[in-house]
Amino acid sequence: MALSVRSWVANEGGKHLVLVLWLGANTLLFMRTFLMYYCGQQYHYLHQMLGVRSRKARRLLDKSKTFHVACGVAICVFSVVHVSAHLVNVVNFSVRYSEEFPSLNVARYRGEDPRLIILTTVPGITGILLVLILFLMFTASSYCIRVSNYEIFWYTHNLFIVFYIILIVHVVGGALKYQTNFEAHPPGCLRANQTNPDKTEEESGQAVGDGWSCREEARFQPNSPETWLWVSGPLCLYCAERLYRYIRSYSPVTIVAVVRHPCDVIELRMLKKDFKAHPGQYIVLNCPSVSSFENHPFTLTACPTEKKETLGIHLRVVGDWTERFTELLLPDPGAESEILPMVQQRRYPKLYVDGPFGSSSQEVFNYEVSLCVAGGIGVTPFACVLHALLDGWRHFRLRRLYFVWVCRELQSFYWFAELLCALHHKLWKENRPDYLNLQLFVSQTDGLQNISEERYRPLSSRLMIGRPRWKLLFEEIGRTNKHKRVGVFCCGPKGISRTLHGLCNSDRYSGTTFEFNKESFS
């Protein structure tokens, strides 16, 4: 029966409007009260006592990438089961063609080629397209493809939009049907002039007399599509988030400084109106001059403060996108840096910033003792943390920071040498030299030289050759911080991350709990 929208509005519209207004008003009141308790400075100590900002909940959210990968693998596994079952069904439709119930068949005749059935039905054609898209998305998500050619991963992963559209169409064909009149035609009933071969003639006559006869022919119709019940909610949330992010990143940022550092690292300083961020967060960059559709995440190495309104990132030139982006920023390969007054700014490419987004590194300050381990350019999440400590450490819960930085080349330490030295001098002046335990390791010994500059002497005294002895470091931290929770934060190669993760789960440090947190953008 068709539904009249006009009649429905006249009969049902009033009560539904009142319901929507009531729910909306309650939602607004809840959000107003929640934001007051959550953001109000007057409730800061209440947060700490009641645990409103739960560290455990935040750490679970940091596992979102792992959960995303697990969901993707589960989709692929159950898709194989789904496709295999339907391939069996197609063969059965062909071999066991029913002359008795022609409308129930998908095959047009007995013995029809199953391949022809697949290629001439809506479920078959859309099913092939879905399998193809899923195969492309799954294979292009492998680590080797993401590292060697990120663009392939990016574009194939965005095929999920096409995947969802085809998925909704996939069920329209109605290959599987159900009986609609099983009361008038009970399953297995006897039609006129028909006997059951499994029963005797006397039993068949008795069944007809008991009402087990068919009063009409069986009627079938396809199952009602229910895919939208599973897809519509997540898609609406996704679209709302994309719209919000588009509005937030609509205005391009102003590039105020570009600095070339050793080992193919570029520092970028930008200015964005009303941009607020916390140490450890990251942003997503989009440069239409390089690619209108590609977005790349970069950790903030400098957050806007009351003294300085600019935000900064350090990016390593690896891959097509960063190479092209660097060429647009510094056309002259020999230029070391370009910091011009605003009135003399040349035309930089348009750059859009989305964010900031939270990450596990934000929790560094929520432990009394934290261990930060960086490998090469993986130091960027902790650079902003060091900047925050340079501005003032007293209002943080953190009372001791172990900072380990491992690099292949000695020149890499110059990226943040001035920052580390400035923090070292500040803590010595405040009589807190033990607040920061700094350890620098250089793993490549070919043509090794020391940091000879006088202004970087605090770094040269903490520079060691080789790799860290992680077990000894954890034993030292465990002895000096018994019955405490130590936050372990890692951003670097998988080998280091795997080793630290294993040590955090070890039971050899009695009385000390090491909570592992990992940064990853690959």
TrEMBL record:
Q: Which GO terms describe its cellular component?
A: endoplasmic reticulum membrane; focal adhesion; NADPH oxidase complex; nucleus; perinuclear region of cytoplasm
The record describes its membrane topology as: Multi-pass membrane protein
Give GO MF terms, alphabetically. Answer: NAD(P)H oxidase H2O2-forming activity; superoxide-generating NAD(P)H oxidase activity
Q: Which Pfam families match?
A: FAD_binding_8, Ferric_reduct, NAD_binding_6
InterPro entries recorded for this chain? Cyt_b245_heavy_chain, FAD-bd_8, FAD-bd_FR_type, Fe3_Rdtase_TM_dom, Fe_red_NAD-bd_6, FNR_nucleotide-bd, RBOH/FRE, Riboflavin_synthase-like_b-brl
Q: Which GO terms are recorded in the biological process aspect for this UniProt protein? A: defense response; superoxide anion generation
Q: Which chemical reaction does it catalyze? A: NADPH + 2 O2 = 2 superoxide + NADP(+) + H(+); NADPH + O2 + H(+) = H2O2 + NADP(+)
List the PROSITE patterns hit by this protein, alphabetically.
FAD_FR (PS51384)
> What's the Enzyme Commission number for this chain?
1.6.3.1
In this chain the FAD-binding FR-type domain maps to 248-363
Q: What's the domain of life for this entry?
A: Eukaryota
What are the UniProt keywords, alphabetically? Cell junction, Cell membrane, Cytoplasm, Disulfide bond, Endoplasmic reticulum, Glycoprotein, Membrane, NADP, Nucleus, Oxidoreductase, Transmembrane, Transmembrane helix
**Membrane-spanning ranges:** 20-39, 66-88, 116-140, 152-176
EC class name: oxidoreductase
Query: Where does the protein end up?
Result: Cell junction, Focal adhesion; Cell membrane; Cytoplasm; Endoplasmic reticulum membrane
Outline what the protein does: NADPH oxidase that catalyzes predominantly the reduction of oxygen to H2O2. Can also catalyze to a smaller extent, the reduction of oxygen to superoxide. May function as an oxygen sensor regulating the KCNK3/TASK-1 potassium channel and HIF1A activity. May regulate insulin signaling cascade. May play a role in apoptosis, bone resorption and lipolysaccharide-mediated activation of NFKB. May produce superoxide in the nucleus and play a role in regulating gene expression upon cell stimulation.
Spell out the protein name for this chain.
Answer: NADPH oxidase 4
Native organism is Oncorhynchus tshawytscha (Chinook salmon)
